[in-house]
Structure formats: C-alpha cells, structure tokens
Amino acid sequence: xxxxxxxxxxTGLVGGPLTEQxxxxxxxxxxxxxxxxxIEHPSTKIDxxxxxxxxxxxxxxxxRADFLFSCLGTTRKQAGSxxxxxxxxLDYQYKAAQLAADMGVNHYLLVxxxxxxxxxxxxxxxxxxxxxQKIKTLPFKRISIFQPSLLLGSRKDFRxxxxxxxxxxxxxxxxxxxxxFRPVTGQQVAAKMVQVSQQPGQTREWFQLDEIFIKR
Length: 216
Fold this sequence. Notes:
Helices cover 33% and strands 20% of the residues.
C-alpha cells in the first residue's frame, strides 16, 4: 500500500495547489481531501469527503494516513465574528490534528502565519500562536510549521488589505534587509510543504518567511 496524505482546506489558496501537487507526487497513492463542500478533480487518487467540522469526531476513521496537511482558514469577515473565525482557524484544525494523532499519522504539516505568537496583542496572530502551542503537545513523530509572509494568489473574496499589500510589499521588500519579508504565492507554499514531506527533517521544525521559497 502506498503513502496516504490528508488535506484539510483543500479548496483554499494553499490547499488547492497542494492537493494538485500531492496528486502529482509519485509515492503518494491517495489524497484524502476533507472539505466542507465538494471539490471536483479528475484524478482517481482523490478521495473527497464532505464533512461537518462541528461533528468531526464522527469522521475519525478518515484520519488514518501518513501525513496531515492542515491548510484550513477563513477571515473574520467571512466567518462573521472573531469567535467564528477561531472556531475554523483554531478549533477545527486542532480537532483534526487530535484525530490524526490518535489514528497514528506520523507527520503533521501546518500553514500558520509569520508573527504567530500566543502573547501577541493582534487577535489573529495570537490565535495562530495558540494553535501552534496546542499542536506541539500532540504525539506526532514530526511536526512541520510554515509561517509565510503575505500570501498571494487568486481568492474568491476580495481583501483590500491583502490587495494593497500585494502592490506595495514586492517593491518594499527589494530594499536591503527586507527581502526575507517578501510575499509568497499559495503555489510556492504548497511546493515547500510537499518538498518537506518528501525529505527527512527535525522532529519539530519551523519554516519562516523566505525559508519557504524553494532554493533553485
């Protein structure tokens, strides 16, 4: 039996291209895409399971695999409140990680954020820091956390802050000392996650800012 990868957030900016890249990875025999709405994909490697994330425990057997790629996320505007955003970005992801750990998943890979800090005054960065802290307590053999700068790519929802950042940051980050903060595309983050999953690494490892770009 080949290697099985789980993706949560397979319809997102990182999760979408990640799913495509995992399908194209030779030693991955199955990609279990756990989503809140159906996805269409021609590959027979894709096993799409539409679930209610509020009742994720009922789907525990779906989390029996080798890898869990956690790319789930929303915005406060989309969710309707900070509490609702926390339910998606923190509670759902942590519950999925708990189930995966219980089912014997060896390697957990998480898309977090640059500046994630449990002590941050910024609610978003604090939330990301809380998730990282909780994940570290789980008994995965290996945990890889990715903390990118501003994510670029085509989104279904318009985000004025990110749009402005995508115009300003590339020029700003060409200045000496700021290059490591340059924006990164969802495709590039996905490629780094796949690369890391295919190579040996540390038991607990973080990839920050420009470390996410694959060196050619």
